[in-house]
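Model: You mentioned two targets. I'll fold them one after the other.
Researcher: Yes, keep them separate.
Model: Target one:
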Amino acid sequence: RELNKSFQDEAEKINDYDKLLNNFSGKILKLSETMRISFNKIEQEISTTMIQNESLKILNSEIREELVFNKNLFNKEFEEFKENVSKKLNLIKNDALKENLMHFINRNQVLLNQMLGSLERKVEDKLEIKDFKSTSIMVQRRVKKIREKL
């Protein structure tokens, strides 16, 4: 719980997703290594204590069983913590990507509207030119017919 709070505090300070991911990955590696070392030290301490105290050998299996149970419980909580933080990182990533996508869409929408306006003007100009040519041809034909009649 304390790790989760610590990570949340740090996540609020860092808003760049890549930095946050690298920071999280580094901390998880350090924490995993610290956990491994701690569990090894505990096992060594138990072994040393068992060797030094003959009367504890009777409880050796129960002590080791309890150690394994607590180790598994701690590992399960650690995996849940990593999963929760990973989900939060994905939400942050999705928000960042959503912002980038919206910016990209808006920028390209403006560009497309400009291009569409330019295309409409060109089409209108071509239609006007075509109409002008058509009208010009009709006028020339009438002029020709009138001259023929005269």
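Model: Target two:
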Amino acid sequence: MTNDFDKLFERARRDLIGFDPLFSLLLDDKRYKTVGVDGYPPYNIEKLDDEHWLITVALAGFTSNDIDITVEDRKLTLTSKQQTEAEATRNYLHKGIAKRSFERRFILADDVEVKRACLQDGLLSIELERIIPESKKPRKIEIAS
């Protein structure tokens, strides 16, 4: 199934040379698609400035031991662990707080790093920062006379 965005990127792919990895990420590569189609857990991505972002994930009822955060090949992956035996043996009359397994992936740009993660009041906050290596920073070239 294609939409207008897919058509736009497909057209741009034909006209722009050297951007193939970017277009592969956006259109083709299933490894980079967001997992968690049902929208669970809900999250926000906030741009703090040009070099900093904050991902906030709603995880009511979870503890830091229930969540794994990994970064591999520019993929930030959040996963929950299976329910504990104590959770499975509880006798709920109504269970409205979802505490289920999930996996959520985010793609990070080359120079973006995870600086910190904190779980407080049911919200997981992940701070991201762009770290530009010295080799990529602009430098002034002196002109010899």
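Researcher: Noted. Anything on target two?
Model: DSSP finds three helices and seven strands in the chain.
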